[in-house]
UniProtKB/TrEMBL annotation:
SMART domains linked to this entry: S_TKc
Example of a GO cellular component annotation carried by this entry: membrane
GO molecular function, one term: carbohydrate binding
Residues annotated for ATP binding in this entry: 372
Any Pfam family the entry gives: Pkinase
Native source organism of the sequence: Lupinus luteus (European yellow lupine)
Residues forming coiled coils: none
Main location: membrane
Protein name: non-specific serine/threonine protein kinase
Length: 753
């Protein structure tokens, strides 16, 4: 009983004496009153280091003693003030992990909190729970759409949730001009923050400024909010931070805090120095045994020179003056060579029509990467191409695979991506996968890819057209979250402008019909490919599957037939079993049909797609959208007989063309009978002069214009004569050009060529 009384008295003394608590740390060399949690630590020179080079971790630092925040008389929260200096250091230019939060919490450790986008504050369950009683000021460097972040460089006021009550891009008000000057949170430079709460006016002010600059008169953020219902009587004050997939260190150089008054000013000159970027510690062995090491170095340098001369050609790179601007984004070929073990077959992750992808571990940083080797075509200037690659490297979204940089050598371009441990999505869908994704996982992947594509189309500073959306280009991270990758074909243009015509590239089954006709990739053509992706993920089938030698199943046709019968759920992947939500599966299948409409104007935007998937807006009734066989891209055109063509067995093979003949071939779609037709609006009334037609119906028995294995033409009608004649004339005109590039014209077809 005596011991209990002593403990109660001790707690009362601690709490009472903390009503006017104030403290200041100009360094953290003597910081016994700080409680550390997670990977947080003190450095030898007095820095508080909240995170290190460990991925997916969190770090906390709290003042050890609890602090009374409420007035004993009226129960309102007292005024408080704090200032601190922080810095964020990343391994990569323009890439960073997650941010840092100044936090008031009922507990010191924030138990059950998650790293990454949750910043070590909350988890999926308690985020937004009013029982958290947590107040924070987040300094965030990652755009998390799920929390409504405004950009990837902002400051926000958080109350019980990571969805900020108010936020603004990082910066400060210039006292001379009165305008906001921007601050880069990931520049590596020290930045000072002031957080103040007026208990009388119930106002929260947040101010930022570069170090050595006096506090701006006008705060960056002001929010009128009574914290009395939010905070408990006794709270803990401190910091929280977390890491994601990019190695980042978060430092606090100094900290001052006070209840019922203004916090003491930090002595900037006494703050500890930040480590140099990329600095290496000198080994004690070198310092002690310098003479011996010097002799050894001479021998090593001699051997290294001999080795360098022998391997100079092997690792030679092409570096032009204009590439100096992209230095931080360029990798050395030698580093990539060793990272991938000489691009060995054991490191090969996959290959396709546009290159081979290898897994690698960077020699120094030990960062796991995926390296894609592609041969750059000369039809576009290398300088413009590299500029686009570097721009794409600045994309930052949780559902995009980060493009870390590039390397070019001897006409070959190497793209370096963040490595995704679970590989591509298609291996979980096709060829009898060993691991089958359930519906919840698939739906989360679909929404994630939609969010990433919406960011590319509308939320970034430029419009990014991906041009190759498919399951094999969606990679899964350690949490099986979908990330859209492979930006090797992506094109950029400014908002409000029209995209330029380019060569037609992409994968059969995902190409929008207008893209093959005009050569112009647009946001709408990306939506079309996304529609094919929706059906592929939900049905577990490729957009075009060959079932027999001369017969292919067109997925969108099949789903459309199920929809017409009123049994669209029959199209779902049978591997899903019964563990799925009926309304979600129907939503995705119907949305896939809507995105596959042959008219670009009839397809939804990615903003609408995200709203449909999140149930913010109801999907329109498809029966009102003329979603008939004329509306679908592979539908059958009435009043026109078919020109059936069979497709290759592998329908996941990308292709590119720049020929008027091939454009006319690709301007059509596939009929419900699984045959390709030529889509034309008007036919010539009679054949052109000089063209004779056989009396028997022509038969295509061999390879035809590089596309088909076997096909035949039947049921020729008078309306088709003019079409065939025009087509033959075009073949005759282009025959020499086509044969020069190895295309067999008219083989097996009894036509006068």
């Amino acid at each position: 009983m005596y011991l209990k009384l002593v403990a109660v008295l001790f707690l009362l003394v601690t709490v009472v004496t903390s009503e006017n608590t104030s403290f200041i740390y100009n360094d953290f060399k003597s910081s016994q009153l700080l409680y550390l949690d997670g990977i947080a630590e003190f450095t030898s020179n007095g820095l508080l280091k909240l995170t290190n080079d460990t991925k997916q971790q969190k770090g906390h630092a709290f003042y050890q003693n609890p602090i009374v925040f409420k007035n004993n008389i009226n129960g309102t929260v007292s005024s408080f003030s704090t200032t601190f200096v922080f810095a964020i250091r990343s391994q990569y230019y323009a890439l960073s992990g997650h941010g840092i939060v100044f936090v008031l919490s009922p507990t010191k450790g924030l138990p059950n909190s998650l790293p990454s986008q949750y910043l070590g504050l909350f988890n999926e369950t308690n985020n937004g729970d009013t029982s958290n009683h947590v107040f924070g000021v987040e300094i965030d460097t990652i755009l998390s759409s799920e929390f409504g972040d405004i950009d990837d460089n902002h400051v926000g006021i958080d109350i019980n949730s990571l969805k900020s009550e108010k936020s603004a891009p990082a910066g400060y008000y210039d006292s001379s001009s009165g305008k906001v000057s921007n601050l880069s949170l990931i520049s590596g430079n020290s930045i000072q923050v002031w957080v103040e709460y007026d208990g009388v006016r119930k106002q929260i002010d947040v101010t930022l400024a570069p170090i050595n600059m006096s506090k701006p008169e006008k705060p960056l953020l002001s929010l009128t909010k009574d914290l009395s219902p939010i905070l408990n009587n006794v709270m803990y004050v401190g910091f929280s931070s977390s890491t994601g997939s990019v190695l980042t260190s978060h430092y606090v150089l100094g900290w001052s805090f006070k209840i019922n008054g203004k916090s003491q000013e930090l002595v900037i000159s006494e703050l500890p120095k930040l480590p140099r970027l990329g600095a290496k510690q000198v080994s004690k062995v070198i310092t002690i045994g310098l003479p011996i090491i010097s002799i050894s170095l001479v021998l090593l340098v001699t051997l290294a020179l001999v080795h360098f001369i022998k391997r100079k050609k092997k690792f030679s790179e092409l570096l032009e003056d204009w590439e100096q601007d992209y230095g931080p984004h360029r990798f050395k070929y030698k580093d990539l060579y060793y990272a991938t073990k000489g691009f060995g077959e054991n490191e090969l992750l996959g290959s396709g029509g546009f290159g081979r992808v290898y897994k690698g571990v960077m020699p120094i940083s030990k960062l796991e990467v995926a390296v894609k080797r592609v041969s750059h075509e000369s039809r576009q200037g290398m300088k413009e191409f590299v500029a686009e690659i570097v721009s794409i490297g600045r994309l930052c979204h949780r559902n995009l695979v980060p493009l870390l940089g590039y390397c070019r050598r001897r006409g070959e371009l190497l793209l370096v991506y963040d490595y995704m441990p679970n590989g591509s999505l298609d291996k979980y869908l096709h060829n009898k996968p060993r691991v089958t994704l359930n519906w919840s996982q698939r739906f989360r992947i679909i929404k994630g890819v939609a969010s990433g594509l919406f960011y590319l189309h509308e939320e970034w500073e430029q419009v990014v057209i991906h041009r190759d959306i498919k399951a094999s280009n969606v990679l899964l991270d350690s949490e099986l979250s979908g990330r859209l990758g492979d930006f090797g074909l992506a094109r950029l243009y400014d908002h409000g402008t029209d995209p330029q015509t380019t060569h037609v590239v992409g994968t059969l089954g995902y190409l929008a019909p207008e893209h093959t006709r005009t050569g112009r990739a647009t946001k709408s053509s990306d939506v079309f490919a996304f529609g094919a992706f929706l059906l592929e993920v939900t049905c577990g089938r490729r957009p075009i599957e060959q079932v027999r030698e001369c017969e292919s199943v067109i997925l969108v046709d099949w789903v459309f037939e199920c929809w017409k019968r009123g049994d669209i759920i029959e199209a779902k992947d049978q591997n899903l079993g019964s563990d799925y939500r009926l309304e979600e599966v129907e939503l995705v299948l119907e949305l896939g049909l809507l995105c596959s409409h042959s008219e670009p104007s009839a397809r939804p935007s990615m903003r609408q797609v995200v709203q449909y998937l999140e149930r913010e807006v109801a999907l329109p009734d498809l029966t009102l959208l003329t979603l008939s066989s004329n509306g679908l891209t592979f539908g059958h055109h009435e009043n026109l007989e078919d020109f059936p063509l069979s497709y290759p067995s592998s329908m996941d093979t990308p292709f590119s063309h720049n020929s008027s003949v091939s454009e006319s071939l690709l301007s059509g779609g596939l009929s419900q009978k699984k045959r390709v037709f030529f889509s034309v609006q008007a036919q010539a009334s009679k054949p052109p002069s000089g063209v004779e037609f056989p009396k028997v119906q022509p038969q295509i028995k061999g390879p035809f214009v590089g596309f088909t294995n076997t096909a035949e033409v039947w049921n020729s009608r008078a309306s088709m004569i003019g079409l065939i004649g025009t087509f033959i004339v075009e073949l005759k005109i282009n025959k020499g050009i086509l044969e020069m590039i190895g295309v067999e014209v008219g083989k097996g077809l009894n036509l006068p060529l």
